[in-house]
Amino acid sequence: MNQFAGKTAVISGGAEGIGFAIATALGEEGMNIVLADIDPNSLAKATEVLERSGVAVLAVALDVASEAQWQLVAEQALARFGKVHMLVNNAGIGGEPGPLEKQNAKAWQWTLDVNLMGVVYGAKTMVPLIKEHGEGGWIVNVASMAGMGGVPYNSAYSATKTAVVALSEGWAGELEKEDIAVSVLCPAFVQTRIYESHRNRQDIYRSESASHGGVSQVAINMIKAVENGIDPAIVGKRVVEALNAGELYIFTHPNYRRVLQHRAKKIDEAFERAAQSPLLQDIVNQKIDML
To answer: Which tens digit of pLDDT belongs to each residue from 106-118?
Structure first.
């Protein structure tokens, strides 16, 4: 039985890359698709492609950093399709990679507002609509493997993606009783234009003090890694596969498993050292009420 057919998904940053791949995969499952994106040209092209495939599509302009614009998306989605069943918080930017002493305040705010607050605003707006019809639904937050551990020279991006993972874990427990499944997608490198995020940088996040001295070696390395990444279409199909299996964490690069195993081992060893500390013996076996 196809659990997606006839239902409606709202996808931010849905006009290209991972967002469009997810839209395509869900459209093939029979979902109505609300494509929300900040780039009008990409939005028009993506809409045309999906409509030619027989997918019911609504294209809506959206800057995810604006809560008011999210409300407009919600209104238009309800007017067209009547209900919302799924939110895919996909829109994101790469920020400005570089050493910490050269971090720019406006670049950080840009990354925080798009990658983190965009997810918060999306959920805050769409979750009440999913609860309203009582049929259950899905929230898919797009994070990154960078959300599973800090990445040198990419602190703003890593911080926001780590936050998205934590939000997803919390929301999964919060929304379970409403039959709303929450998943967090953590891909490694995928062939997208994330390294061209500046093309859609809003004016309020531009700064005269931002770096204008050419592309750094760190950025060049990131670009090469992205260009050698996997096809976004694989990610879209993997999301559908994982949603059908009810997965909280959606991984697309199983070769990164050993990286997380190494991190988990270091964390476990740190807990063991804490357990052996004379300072902490009174709480070693203390009950954890919140769990």
So the answer is: 999 999 999 999 9
Domain 8-258 classified CATH 3.40.50.300? no
> Contacts for 70-78 with beta carbons within 8 Å, 24 or more apart?
70/121, 70/122, 70/124, 70/125, 70/126, 71/125, 73/10, 73/34, 73/36, 73/125, 74/10, 74/125, 74/126, 74/129, 76/34, 77/8, 77/10, 77/34, 77/129, 78/129
Out of 121, 157, 195, 205, pick the active-site residue. Answer: 157
The conformation of residue 95, written as its DSSP 8-state character, comes to -
List residues bridging with 182 in a β-sheet: 139
pLDDT tens column, 158-195: 999 999 999 999 999 999 999 999 999 999 989 887 76
At which residue do the structure tokens 């950080």 appear?
Answer: 108
Q: Where are the domains of the chain?
A: 8-258
Amino acid at 49: V
The set of residues, in sequence order, having a beta carbon less than 8 Å from that of 168 and lying 6+ positions away, is 139, 141, 143, 182, 183, 184, 248
What is the DSSP-derived secondary structure letter of residue 185? Answer: E
Q: How far apart are CA 255 and CA 46, in angstroms?
A: 31
157 is catalytic: yes
